[in-house]
Amino acid sequence: MTSPILQVDKLKMYFPVKEGILMRATRFNRAVDGVSLSIRPGETLGLVGESGCGKSTLGRCIARLYKPTEGRIDFEGTDITQLSGKALLPYRKDIQMIFQDPMESLNARHTVGDILEEPFIIHRIGSKQERTQKVRRLLDIVGLPARSVTRYPFEFSGGQRQRISIARSIALNPKLVICDEPVSALDVSIQSQILNLLVDLQEEFNLAYLFIAHDLAVVKHISNRIAIMYLGKIFEEADGEAIYQSPQHPYTESLISAIPIPDPRKRIRREVIKGDVPSPINPPRGCSFHPRCPKVIDTCHVEQPSLRTLPDRKLACHLALDAVSTTS
Ligand code: SF4
Fold first, then answer.
1. What is the pLDDT of residues 214-229, one digit of tens each?
2. Which domains are seen in the chain, by residue range?
3. pLDDT tens string 41-91
4. d(CA 233, ligand 1 centre) in Å
5. How many CA atoms lie within 13 A of 261 on its CB side?
6. 226 vs 242: CA distance, rounded Å
């Protein structure tokens, strides 16, 4: 089996919460709290959880937009956790990010031509003429007309703007793209077009994706494996098929139940969870899901379950049987 292109080990990202007259950090927002995962070249790992569970923060740590508090990020065998400045520059090329709202991530005062040329200028690639050709090729790859170069982001639809973001993200031939809810703000009819484009690009350029979403339905067709995240931790990770056909964690079960059924004649028993995700500043003791879990037992109130390796998945739940090892 191919070695992972990305290996994340016990990663933590704690943000200080400054309070009082002296603005001292007495508490921490534990946005990412000991996450381990890996992605192989050309593979898609779906990362799913409700808003506020830390998945976007994890993506930004991996892209090294944040410097993690603890833990380790290896990219192609090199520890990039603490790199900064020039030492980080090659990895900025190799690891790219697509954001949910292209209007925020694209500079509204620049033309599409300028936006797509910028990565080549930053990394000193090609002459002006060569860069112009590369920009035209990028537009062609993502299905936008060559005349787009003179237009501004606000002149495009949401789906077209996301195509511009995607074009920029692949400009430097990255190996890993972190897709942070790239279709969540789009109409359902446009979502599938963008997902298909991402799949085509993955096949053409052997891209690895970390695909972040709050909705399991969105990642279903694009992910090889899926990790379920809640309050800074991974609760379950398995092949897409295993997650959809036989979810083992009560939180995963509730996310599956929330997927709309297109056929109104089919009825399923829904395990809809109540309440909101608790604050990562003051997470519940024991299993952080216990205040909302329909299967809670006494142990869950006091003991945090570790992520254990089972024959077909990783799972963090006291109800998990047949665990063969502890991974974190
Ligand atoms: Fe529910 Fe307990 Fe499992 Fe947590 S450990 S998911 S509270 S059963």
1. 988 889 889 999 999 9
2. 6-109+152-235 (3.40.50.300)
3. 999 999 999 988 999 999 999 999 999 999 999 999 999 999 999 899 989
4. 13
5. 10
6. 9
